[in-house]
Design brief:
By secondary structure, the chain is an all-alpha fold. About 95% of the residues lie in helices and about 0% in strands.
């Protein structure tokens, strides 16, 4: 069919290309050739252009549909991103509040631990002071007892003369003999 249309088109062009006197007499034929050419071109256009236009229209519609779907998808993603951005401020504030609360709890825990530790150290220091006081008191008592003994020995030595010393020894010996019996 295409070959026939091409041959017809070439024949028509050839007919119009003739010049001279013979062509003047053939004005009617020229118009007939022109009409045949127009009818042939019209037929070819009617046969091949509508399917071409339909396919092109379908491609355009498909492209428009795909573009609309892509646009909706992009708008949905943009809305999701905007929602996340809007929620991000809230999330950040939430994290700040949570961090503050955790810091306050940690500070309270540290203060409590420090207080307990200080109390423990204070009790330990009091016990050490008390123990040291008892040790010093024992040492002072021992020292006082030693001084008292030394003082008593010194007084006894001053008050003892050889006669009193002999009498004490005799009495001691006598007490020993009496206790053996």
């Amino acid at each position: 069919m295409k070959r026939l249309a091409i041959a017809f088109a070439l024949f028509s062009v050839g007919a119009f290309a003739q010049e001279g006197e013979a062509s003047r007499n053939l004005d009617g034929w020229k118009w007939a050739n022109f009409a045949i050419l127009v009818i042939g071109l019209g037929y070819l256009m009617a046969k091949y252009l509508p399917p071409l236009f339909r396919s092109r229209t379908q491609e355009i519609r498909k492209g428009i549909t795909e573009a609309q779907a892509l646009k909706r998808d992009a708008e949905a993603r943009a809305a999701a991103v905007e929602a996340k951005l809007a929620a991000l401020g809230t999330e950040i504030e939430k994290f700040r509040v949570q961090a503050r609360a955790e810091m306050e709890q940690e500070a309270a825990r540290i203060a409590e631990n420090t207080s307990r530790h200080l109390e423990k150290l204070q009790r330990q220091a009091e016990l050490e002071i008390e123990t040291a006081g008892k040790i010093v008191q024992r040492e002072l008592r021992g020292y006082a007892a030693k001084l008292a003994l030394e003082l008593a020995e010194t007084r006894i030595r001053r008050s003892l003369d050889p006669r009193t010393d002999g009498a004490l020894i005799e009495e001691f010996v006598h007490d020993l003999g009496a206790s053996k019996n």
